[in-house]
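User: Teach me something about this protein's shape.
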Amino acid sequence: MNDVDDPEYHKRRGYELDKLGKFDEALREWDRAIQLDPDNPEYHYNKGNVLADLGKNDEAVKEYDAAIILAPKNPTYRAALKELKISEQDLTEERRRAELERECEIVTQAIKTALHNMDHRYCELSKIDYGRIESPEPVMRVKYLERPFAYEFYHQFRTLVESGEIDLGGPIVQAEVDKDYQHIFQSGKVPDFIIHVPNARNKNLAIIEFKLASRNIEDIQDDLKKLELFRKPPLRYAYAALVLIGRKGELERARKDLKLMVQTLTETVDVIGFNTQSWRAG
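Assistant: First, the predicted structure itself:
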């Protein structure tokens, strides 16, 4: 028999090329060996190994399956198939984590950009104090509330998305969605904003809360707990941010009071301060 018509010749060549890292050439040798002897499970098994080395896992699974059908009692073939499926799951999970990290970076930057772009005219409340309207100076210090602030943020965030300046890759931003209708939480846990794909379980991207830094610490802590809850099962939001609004001194006090609690949270929550004097997030 001519060597080129001997499947064992191609088997030896396949091994040699595989050891040299020449996987594409090795694959051709195993293809030829199988062509000459399609019922040899060893050839299918080794072709599966080369395909796995090339990252062609779906094709490798088919070859391992073929080897197992031909030699169902061989533990090596079954072990190779199991190991490949486990590594594929690990790789899929690693890719998912990397994708989530990338998306979270985009969201973080988008939040800060939207905050930076906000027009203070739509956030400031009237300074007229009607309780002392007859006074020579019936004007108060500039005052803010969370709702007008959040509405202007929502406008700026949507503008970034719709202009194409940021690409969330599918998720959308929605405001004040009460998850009670999905039988997840009892009422009272309504976030200011969620960024997600509404009908996909694995695309809960971010949750955002706005709070005045001048509020009592218990109110702010309640929002932190809410954010932490949304990061846990069953929702598993990938990113959570608490935006504190206030003057420099108010922000410093709030951060100091929250420091210990933030450290004890079981899920990470990003605390972003927005200084209404410098009109900057940090």
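Now, about its shape. The chain has eight helices and six strands. The longest strand covers residues 204-212. If you'd like, I can walk through any region in more detail.
User: That's plenty for now, thanks!
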